[in-house]
Amino acid sequence: MLMELKRFGTQKLLQILAFLIILTSCMSINDKHGYFPLEKDIDQLIIGKTNKAQVIKIIGPAAISDGASWIYISSNVRSTAFFDPAVTDRNILFLEFSKKDILSSREIFTVEDGKFFDMHKTKEINDPRKINAFRQLFGNIGNFSAESFVNNY
């Protein structure tokens, strides 16, 4: 009788343990990335008056900058088990400055907007979905060096 009770307890313990492992593997994991300034701080940025030094003092340095354009970005990503991660929230503050380092535009994008933007509006971006078959086939000609063909044994 005691032996059957121990065996029953061990089986139950293993079942509970297996159930908990399965349950925890299906839980969502939320990752927060980046920095997005508070709305009250963004409201202090006045187009045509605020300069780069003031922006840094008010909201801090940008995550991405190329001189005339600054980007502040934050996102929340949810991962569940074996499913692809999904962006649940994304906020982007896009600031542009004039040649005199004065704020010339301020835009806020969210994940609901579904917009893509280009920091380099004057430069062409090669989107692989827009490249024709000829360019894909012959685009790598000349991109090889002799070192890539030598075996290093």
Considering the chains and any ligands shown, give keywords for the structure:
single chain; 153 residues; alpha+beta; 5-stranded antiparallel β-sheet; 4 helices
What does this molecule look like?
This protein has helices at residues 2-25, 39-42, 52-59, 133-138, and strands at residues 28-34, 64-65, 69-80, 86-97, 103-110. It is of the alpha+beta class. It has a domain at 28-113. Strands 1, 2, 3, 4 and 5 form a five-stranded antiparallel β-sheet that branches. It is elongated, with a radius of gyration of 27 Å. Residues 119-127 have low confidence and may be disordered.
Which helices and strands occur, and which strands form pairs?
Layout: H1 2-25, E1 28-34, H2 39-42, H3 52-59, E2 64-65, E3 69-80, E4 86-97, E5 103-110, H4 133-138
Antiparallel strand pairs: 1-3, 2-3, 3-4, 4-5
Write a concise synopsis of the structure shown:
The protein has helices spanning 2-25, 39-42, 52-59, 133-138; strands spanning 28-34, 64-65, 69-80, 86-97, 103-110. The chain is α+β, with helices and mostly antiparallel strands and 153 residues long. It has a domain at 28-113.
Structural class: alpha+beta
- Our count of helices gives 4
Largest beta-sheet details? 5 strands, antiparallel
Shape: elongated
CA-CA gap between termini: 68 Å
Q: Could you tell me the number of beta strands?
A: 5
Which strand-content bin applies to the residues? 25-35%
Summarize the helix and strand pattern as letters. HEHHEEEEH
The Cα radius of gyration reads 27 Å
Uncertain spans: 119-127
Q: Kindly report the average pLDDT value.
A: 76
Helix content: 25-40%
